[in-house]
Design brief:
By secondary structure, the chain is mainly α. It has helices at 35-57, 61-102, 123-137, 142-151, 156-165, 170-184, 189-198, 203-211, 217-231, 237-246, 251-260; strands at 3-5, 12-14, 109-111, 118-120. It has a two-stranded antiparallel ribbon with strand order 1-2.
Amino acid sequence: MAEIKCPACWNDIPDDSETCPCCGFTLRSPQRTNIETHTSGQYNENTTNNLQTFSQKTVNPRDTVSEREKKNKKIIGIAIALIVIIICVGVANSNREKSKTAGYDYKGYSSDYYGRTSYPKTGNEGALYKAKSYLNTSAFSYTGLIEQLEYEGFSTSEATYGADNCGANWKDQALKKAKSYLDSSAFSESGLQEQLEYEGFTVDEASYGVKNCNADWKQQAAKKAASYLRSHSNWTRSELIEQLEYEGFSYDQAAYGASQNGL
């Protein structure tokens, strides 16, 4: 075995000595084994493997959120598609109903307002349908209905056909018209007779309406007097009575009307 000199005491000592056996001088630090390095490497390798294994077994939260968002987006997309389909179907049905209500078919017929039936728009049948429609909402004399149908564009012959075949009782129409007048204004007996004749009713028809409308002519005089006083508040009693007599009321009726209004 080779020897070396101790730097401290200069004695000969084996060259593999860590300390001098003579003076105890430390020649070199103890050699470290590779255990730590090996262990560290093994730890790092094992740790890496364990982490890889753990990452394979553990679900990434971000991956979970991403999958949930994808599912939600898919559900929302399906819901929107269903809503769009429902709206489109509703619009299509609405358009079909409108076409049924307003459109004309190949026979020249048109759906009525409710879309439940069809009716002719022109010719004799159209005039007849229109005549009945008018009589369902208002009262007309025979000549008045013909004039109205002509105003709607029907010819005189078509309008006459409609009036002749509508099944109206013209006396009943005169009575209905008389009541509608009394609902909106005040008339004397003679004044209402004249108004009905002006509407085209015959004398007999107008007389029937006046006699059967159950009007209280004194009360009609009072209503008429009140309407005059609303527009001419400075009228005297005699002036008001005179005006009511001019409207066709008798003196007694006119006097009653004036008294009921404080004159």
